[in-house]
Amino acid sequence: MWLGFIVFNRRTSHFFHFMASAGCRSHRGGRMAAWMLYRCVFGPHLQRIHRSPEQPRPEGRFARRPWNYQPRSLEKHTDSILGWASAIWSISYYSSPLLLCYLYRKGYICSSKLVPVSQYLGTVLVCLLGVACIRGWGRWRNTDYVHFISVLEETKKNHTPENKKKLRCFDFDFSHWPADFSWTEVSSPKHPKGGVSLLKPEPRLRGTADSFLHSVRTLPCHVIGFLIAHSFGRRMLYPGSVGLLQKAMRPMLQGGLAKLIEEYDGERNKLVACDGNEIDTMFVDRRKDGGPNGRTLVICCEGNAGFYEVGCMNTPLEGGYSVLGWNHPGFAGSTGVPFPQNEANAMDVVVQFAVHKLGFQLSDIVIYAWSIGGFTASWAVMSYPEIQSVVLDASFDDLLPLALKVMPESWRPLVQHTVRQYMNLNNAEQLVKYQGPVLLVRRTRDEIITTTHADDIMSNRGNNLLLRLLQFRYPKIMTDEGVRVVRQWLAASSPIEEASVYSGYEVDDDWCLSVLKSYQTDRDVSFPWSVGEDMTLEGRRQLALFLARKYMRNFESTHCTPLPAAEFHSPWRL
Q: What residues does the Phosphatidylserine Lipase ABHD16 N-terminal domain cover (predicted)?
């Protein structure tokens, strides 16, 4: 009897242990399912699934077909509803000042009217929350989305290279992308959290009383300038930061991103700058290819409506270089607004990332900039003088003359104050502080950085950038006569005219090169040089034209034509 009782107890204990284990597993599985459903409701919008680098490239007519993410009908329709709600909210936000004025004049801003409106808005929000939950249910039933969420959560927990490789196969809202590098990771940061240092315009010297009266008198100008800079001024200067333009370009940007990842095995990274802005970057590593240019990293700085997905990255890529592209603050996946301080902060963390994370030396880095990207490029070489060289394509010396061109003449004092205070893109002032090799590319039919019209090549502000650089580096050569002959060469709008001016002064390239090398060998000093001090007028003319042709190349095109890889050259150096 006792033996039977013992056997019975053992069996029942095993039974209860089995039931408890099953209950725990069931409870744990339920919690995991609930957590996954929650992540599907509040997770990012998945836009595309890229071909994994390990998978073979499909052949034939399917070779360029994208691996698009296919949302199910439930997710697709709810996404559409939430998209329209987001668009209506954006329109309401930007038109809120006018809307509030209208409601105030109609007498709707009072307690009796606001209560029904708040109830209506609350009902709409509850309905939208329900739509978001239904979308989450649709995502939860999609195996592709569930797999994506699993990869994203695992990468956030363990940011290993293997997990990151899996994550880069998905194109989704970049705000959910885990940070790959922060400026705080640098052992000895060069700047405080407020931001990197910028060159400031020199203040005018005034007495104490005069300075106070001047501040009071110019207060309205300060207020208006601030409002202009933070409203339409910034959007005019950087139209790529306008959300409407980004939405219109979204298919093009997605296609460009897919090409960089699938064809060039590009690596997308999120960098956190010292001001807290998140910078969207793309890195293509060519060091393992064994090419002559793969060991050199080209950091690309885009124009005011340029994105690395479809911008100037393609030029050095076709040349076989390792390339690092990044988007301005407020462009595509990058956060913030593109004011000069934020731009410099972003450029700083990009350079730090290239050195400390990607393993490049500053002497292996070339900065390549197009148009307004010349500001961050010139800041980078000014702040990091060890950088190998800089190439500025279709860039300018200073923003102010270009801003005065598009604004009414009566606004001149206001424009001058606004630009100098909030948008001081002083490229030439920064560039002259760099001692390394420089190449300027001038577009002969540039319609953007000319102060008159595209056919007037002498109004191209790239001319002023060249003259400013040469006058700083070679002041004894670039006297009035030197400036005159360089301007004559700059006025040539075709290669035949250039050659005619060059041969007209009988420039002897070998003699000019020997003079400069002899001076460098004897003195080995930094710029400015005193070469040409005891030289004849004819010798200074020859040297001026020789240097102008070495520092600038002409490209016969308009402003927005992509620069061919054949036109991307390393800057001249002695």
A: 35-173
Residues 6+ apart with CB under 8 A from 468: 397, 428, 431, 432
In 3-state terms, what secondary structure has residue 440? Answer: strand
215 in any annotated domain: no
Across 443-466, average pLDDT: 94
Tell me which DSSP letter residue 478 carries: S
Distance between CA atoms of 522 and 202, rounded to whole angstroms? 36
pTM across the whole model: 0.87
State how far the Cα of 405 lies from the Cα of 418, in Å rounded to an integer: 15
- Strand pairing partners for 298? 323, 366
Residues whose CB falls within 8 Å of the CB of residue 333, separated by 6 or more in sequence, listed in order: 174, 175, 177, 270, 278, 280, 327
SS3 per residue for 200-248:
CCCCCCCCHHHHHHHHHHCHHHHHHHHHHHHHHHHHHHCHHHCHHHHHH
Please tell me the total count of domains within the chain: 2
Domain shared by 301 and 415, yes or no: yes
Q: Does residue 316 have a cis peptide bond before it, meaning omega lies within 30 degrees of 0?
A: no
Give the residue among 75, 78, 51, 45 at the shortest CA–CA distance from 149.
45
CA distance 300 to 313: 6
* CB within 8 Å of 186: residues ≥ 6 apart: 352, 356
Asked if 48 and 111 sit in the same domain, the reply is yes
For position 11, what pLDDT does the model report?
Answer: 45
Rounded Cα distance between 294 and 322, Å, is 5
Contacts of residue 59, defined as CB under 8 A and 6 or more positions apart, other chains included, come to none
Task: Kindly state whether residues 248 and 160 are assigned to the same domain.
Answer: no
Last residue of one domain, picked from the residues 417, 436, 455: 436
pLDDT at residue 116, rounded to an integer: 81
| Whether 262 and 406 share a structural domain | yes
Return the exposure string of 27-58: e unless at least 16 CB atoms fall within 10 Å of the residue's CB, then b: eeeeeeeeebeebbbebbbbebbbbeeeeeee
Q: Give the range of the structural domain holding residue 136, as residue numbers without chain letter.
A: 36-53+66-178
**How does DSSP classify residue 367?**
E
Within a 10 A sphere around the Cβ of 399, how many other Cβ atoms?
21
Residue of 470, 435, 476 whose CA lies nearest to 545: 470
Quick one: pLDDT band at residue 3, thresholds 50, 70, 90? very low
Task: Give a yes or no: residue 469 inside a domain.
Answer: no
State the DSSP code for 176: G
The partner residues of 438 in beta bridges, in order of sequence, read 390
